[in-house]
Design a protein that fits this description.
9 helices, 5-stranded mixed sheet, single chain, 277 residues
């Protein structure tokens, strides 16, 4: 996948830049004014792990948000969003493929932010700042095509075996329902990747998959002979956002301004049509 790199760094700055800076005790460096003027969003006060580059933690393998093209390049809704944000800020992009169950621990050290279908929750707000939300999602239950399993609410997961991805809101929700007795006699199978959860469903190891609705839609659309939607929890909306370090107000401000401009330009409608058609 070819990308147009907008940010041009000063030659002198290039000589002293490394992953953690140039002989400084700070883990982040100020963005040079030369890089800042390239975009429409002011990032002169933003500090980044690598000067002139927006480093992003992302778990590649959560389509349609994050996936790999045939040549190995990252593609997906979130990937396009990252490049659009960086374009507005006049920055290059460095995507760091990271397992989701440890992805938040790398903010501020391995990357500047996380863009990886991250649901904004009160628990995550305790350790992270979030951008304005950029997409809505719902919990969805997927079954094999032609299954006789009937799910009218998440309570009907009682007595079922449920495959899902580890460290997600799907897991947190089901754990809470089991803990409170709302769901009983439920076998839960967390996997590192959502792909593994669907493979477990294919193999008959689990009755259903619990996941985000855009992911469910993608699998059902791509494999209409294999999967069907059993339930969509429309009463409880979840929202995805960009996660940043708790004290990184400058980056939060820049990201929100970039998102505002993208919204005004119709980017989100176009990106949604592209990846969720």
């Amino acid at each position: 996948m070819k990308r147009k790199i907008i940010a041009m760094l000063l030659a002198a700055a290039m000589l002293c830049v490394s992953f953690v800076g140039c002989g400084s005790d700070d883990s982040k460096k100020d963005v040079s004014s030369a890089a800042a003027v390239q975009g429409s969003v002011d990032v002169s006060n933003v500090k980044l792990i690598k000067e002139g580059t927006l480093s992003v933690g992302m778990e590649i393998g959560y389509p349609p948000f994050e996936d790999k093209a045939e040549n190995g390049d990252p593609i997906g809704y979130d990937v396009d969003l990252v490049y659009a944000l960086a374009d507005k800020m006049g920055l290059e992009v460095n995507i760091v493929d990271t397992a989701f169950d440890v992805i938040f621990a790398g903010i501020g050290t391995n990357y500047d932010c996380v863009v990886s279908a991250v649901t904004i929750t009160d628990e995550r707000r305790e350790n992270c700042l979030f951008s304005e939300p950029y997409i809505d999602s719902y919990q969805a239950v997927v079954v094999k095509k032609g299954s006789d399993i009937k799910i009218e609410s998440l309570k009907d997961l009682s007595g079922k075996s449920v495959a899902l991805q580890d460290a997600t809101t799907s897991k947190a929700l089901l754990e809470d329902m089991i803990k409170t007795g709302t769901v009983t006699d439920c076998k839960m199978g967390p996997s590192e990747k959502v792909l593994t959860a669907f493979t477990a469903l294919d193999n008959g190891e689990y009755d259903v998959v619990l996941c985000d609705s855009p992911v469910a839609d993608t699998y059902i659309t791509n494999y209409p002979d294999k999967y069907e939607l059993a339930f969509l929890d429309k009463e409880n909306v979840e929202q995805f956002g960009v996660a940043m370090a708790k004290n990184d107000v400058e980056l939060q401000t820049a990201v929100n301004e970039a998102m505002k401009q993208l919204k005004e330009e119709g980017f989100f409608e176009e990106n949604t049509a592209k990846w969720f058609a």
